[in-house]
Amino acid sequence: MTRPQPLESYTWPASNEELAARVGRRASDMIRFDGNVPAAPPASARPAALARALADVNEYDRSRHEPLRRGIAAYHGLDVAQVALGAGSDEFIVLLARVFAEGGTVATVPARSYSMYRYAAIMAGATMVEDPHSADLVFVCRPNNPTGELPDVPDVAGQLVIDEAYADYAGVDALARIEDGAIILRTFSKAFGLAGARVGYALASPETIDVIASRQAPLSVSTLSAALALAALATPPDVSGQVAERERLARELVGLGLVPLPSFTNFLYVPMDNPVELVERLLPYGVVTRAFVGGWRVSVRDEVDDDILLDALRAELAGGTTASELVRHRRATAETILTVRLRPRGEGRVFVSTGEGFYDHMLSQLAFHGGMDLRLEGVGDLETGDHHTVEDMMRAFGEALDRALGDRRGLARYGEARVPMDEAIAHAVVDLSGRAVAEIAIDPDPGMATHAFESLAQTARITLHVTASGRNAHHVAEAAFKAVGRALAVAIAPSGNLVRSTKGSL
Ligand code: PMP
Fold first, then answer.
1. Domain count for the chain
2. Does residue 129 sit in the same domain as residue 267?
3. Which residue of 220, 318, 449, 486 has the smallest Cβ count within 10 Å?
4. Selection from 145, 147, 182 nearest residue 166 by Cα
5. Could you give the CA distance from residue 336 to residue 52 in angstroms, rounded to a whole number?
6. Reading across the β-sheet that carries 350-353, which strands appear in turn?
7. In ligand 1, which atom is closest to the CA atom of 200?
8. Is the CB of 187 inside a 6 Å radius of any atom of ligand 1?
9. Does any domain span residue 499?
10. For residue 311, what is the domain's CATH number?
11. 141 lines ligand 1 (CB under 6 A)
């Protein structure tokens, strides 16, 4: 027997670490507009969602993830016998080529589609053909990757597989075709935001599911991934914000002379002659996009990230200037997962959402009155109270601020502000000293205000003096957060080119 040789196969784009090294940036600065996944995980993806699965991680799931299969069936109004689970829908693409086209023929609709279909055909020793009517197996990518279009589903003689990885964004599906023998592929990687968990599924008639399942490894989805998928299914994604953002991004691109095709997905495809050059020009901005033959594809992320893409495009194509640098920071512990995007001298564009409404509001006040752009999102273990969440949101913010301040060169260093709020009054004094000192006197403290400022001072490495008093604890805290914001704005204002210390460093 001859030894098997490697096949032509799917190649992943370079990692953040590799790309960052090429353009002299940090890996955490790289923004992936090449993966067609949401900018953040779903709120349900928290350590607590995994606790039960971890407690039993020494065991096999003898039910073969029945709760998840039942949940998926109910989500689509199907019977549990019509669901097969796999490690991503890619598992099914490979498997179905082997099952239905071993040594035979495979076609795709549209003709230019997701590259995995061809690699799956290669693995099955099958040949790609143009005409779907003459193929043993037909993959219909609906909506299509990479063009974003929504093709019609043809009537064909061979086995029909309708890949609906992006169907949530289109708002239409072809589930009705199951009755005619079609197999539908779905995934938790896209609208559900769980690409790293690798969970996909096939929907088909019970007989076809038996055919598929009998050729799978006995249990290819881990209990941890199944737990994340089940948790996500409890609050299915609302993609309306993404769809609106897609249309905004499309309009902005048109304004730059880049005209995308109409899209039914979470990405945009712009036909162009030399997309590789554009991809390369955007990399130094930390913007990672993807070139195809004859076109350029960008994922729709969220407003903050998409604005960075647009800034980079303006700078490259229209001679614009980019906004000052945005610091991206993630803080993940067993108790909280928080993502921070911060531009300390911004325009007061602020969004803070951890689920702890009062302190979300307080930190928003601080950032807004500090003239910052801040987007801080995530989840904490609020079932244990607000302590971890408030502490960690302030720590995450402080860490991002510390990074943004760098060696603190060229900044005023000191700042002071006094802010009233009805009967309450607060006074804050800040020194970007590089030393973590907090002298806080807040009376009455609504609960976590003192500790919040201590956490900020520690992580941002600043000296922070705050006094605040009044009758209403809400007013007292609000005055204090605003005062700290205003004092910070003064301290981080540009001032010469010096590190403001006779020691020469802070
Ligand atoms: N189908 C299409 C059309 C895709 O674009 C992708 C991912 N890029 C997949 C399937 C595979 O997704 P997963 O294996 O993560 O479910």
1. 3
2. no
3. 318
4. 145
5. 17
6. 327-332, 336-343, 373-380, 350-353
7. 16
8. yes
9. no
10. 3.90.1150.10
11. yes
Q: Look at the pTM and tell me if it is higher than 0.85.
A: yes
What is the identity of the amino acid at 104? Answer: G
Q: 89 CB less than 6 Å from ligand 1?
A: yes
**Distance of CA 114 from the midpoint of ligand 1 (Å):** 8
In short, whether 113's Cβ falls inside 6 Å of ligand 1 is no
Kindly state whether residues 212 and 299 are assigned to the same domain: no
> Ligand 1, atom 13: nearest CA belongs to which residue?
88
Ligand 1 proximity of 352 Cβ (cutoff 6 Å): no
Distances (CA, A) of 456 to 370, 438, 451, 466: 14, 9, 9, 12
404 & 425 share domain: yes
Taking the C-alpha atoms of residue 362 and residue 356, their distance in angstroms, rounded to an integer, is 10
Residue-by-residue pLDDT tens, the chain, 506 positions = 789 999 999 999 999 999 999 999 999 889 999 999 999 999 899 888 999 999 999 999 999 999 999 999 999 999 999 999 999 999 999 999 999 999 999 999 999 999 999 999 999 999 999 999 999 999 999 999 999 999 999 999 999 999 999 999 999 999 999 999 999 999 999 999 999 999 999 999 999 999 999 999 999 999 999 999 999 999 999 999 999 999 999 999 999 999 999 999 999 999 999 999 999 999 999 999 999 999 999 999 999 999 999 999 999 998 877 777 789 999 988 888 999 999 999 999 999 999 999 999 999 999 999 999 999 999 888 888 899 999 999 999 999 999 999 888 889 999 999 999 999 999 999 999 999 999 999 999 999 999 999 999 999 999 999 999 999 999 999 999 999 999 999 999 998 777 777 777 77
